[in-house]
Amino acid sequence: MTPAQKIEILQQLIQIPSVNAHEAEVADYLASLFAPYPQAKVERLTYAPGRDNLVVTIGDPTGPLLGLAGHMDVVAPGDETAWHHAPFGGEIVGDQLFGRGASDMKSGLAAITIAMLEALEQHQPLAGGVRLLATVGEETGEYGAAQLTDAGYADHLAGLVIAEPSGLDQVVYTARGVIDYKVVSTGKGVHSASPELGVNAITNLMKFYNAVGPMMAQHTQVDPVLGGLLHNVDLISGGEQVNSIPAHAELMANMRTIPAYPNQMLYDELEGLVAKLNQEPGVDLELTYSFPEEAIPGDPQAPLVQLAKQISDQVCGHDTQIVGSGGANDGAEFLRGKGDFTSIEIGPGSNTSHQPDEYISLAAYLQAIDFYEAFVPAFFQSTVVTH
Ligand SMILES: [Zn+2]
């Protein structure tokens, strides 16, 4: 494939506006690229209408299996007047290709896809299987990765590389988890002249608010790369009008977890607090979660981490740093697959992810393809895989 063809694939991907939906169009396009190669096993898993996960497996199915993963969804462009380049245009100016997903992460998705296509095109013998795991809904809760994992597509992987935009000079081996939760307080609305007849939902919600902060602050363990547990109440609302006792109040909080505090432990604490407060007269609190994710523990000395650093150092001529990430990724779901394996993130990117005028350097994108093409055979020869 020529550099121009590789760039065209990325442009085509960016021109599909897969904003938390329409991933099936991305899956169709990627599947079409594998159509000339009947030996590639192409599978789809539908999450919802118009939203297909895509799995493509190539190579020797009897050997170890390397997972290469990327998400097909992008975040919304936001205020389009803040963009100087059309968010879904894929416009190129000099070395920069602009568009939503240029960094996060259609360049990474294109790069791992092209690495597989070129292995097929060159009839490269692979000492194992390589599986593309292209997901829906990463940006809104990793539910595509969850679905693929539940269906067994991450079982018995020998290693997993997620092409998120770390930049090729960084390999991410550990990541924070996330718990977003909501507490709804239900009271009884009455005229504020006779509050004794009602139940003030705001007062009861504040009981939770006042208790939860100190409770979470007791978790003082600090992860050496990720830092401490973070808990913030970020949304709060309640009441109907100033002369009525409020019948409804709610808050939402965001937690950024670390491996030292498994999510289940935190759920137990939150649920325990709600149950305790609900024993008080009139208190009616309800707790719900949206798409929580486990933190990803990791070992910077793990063979997969070290191999990624070594290959990136060689291909790019820089000193790749081994780092942690404050954000969750699809790896949190894939790691639930059967068997023990390491999940890392390394991929092309810029510091413009989720921003107006998101871009990728074409040189960095093409270099990422070289990286994955060097990484795949090195993986099968390495100590990561025990034959
Ligand atoms: Zn991403």
Automatic annotation (TrEMBL):
GO terms for biological process: diaminopimelate biosynthetic process; lysine biosynthetic process via diaminopimelate. Its cofactor is Co(2+); Zn(2+). CDD domains: M20_ArgE_DapE-like (cd08659). It comes from Levilactobacillus suantsaii. SUPFAM superfamilies: Bacterial exopeptidase dimerisation domain (SSF55031), Zn-dependent exopeptidases (SSF53187). GO terms for molecular function: metal ion binding; succinyl-diaminopimelate desuccinylase activity. Residues 174-278 form the Peptidase M20 dimerisation domain. Belongs to the peptidase M20A family. It catalyses: N-succinyl-(2S,6S)-2,6-diaminopimelate + H2O = (2S,6S)-2,6-diaminopimelate + succinate. Keywords: Amino-acid biosynthesis, Cobalt, Diaminopimelate biosynthesis, Hydrolase, Lysine biosynthesis, Metal-binding, Zinc. The keyword DNA repair does not apply. Pfam families: M20_dimer (PF07687), Peptidase_M20 (PF01546). Its EC number is 3.5.1.18. Pathway: Amino-acid biosynthesis; L-lysine biosynthesis via DAP pathway; LL-2,6-diaminopimelate from (S)-tetrahydrodipicolinate (succinylase route): step 3/3. This is Probable succinyl-diaminopimelate desuccinylase.
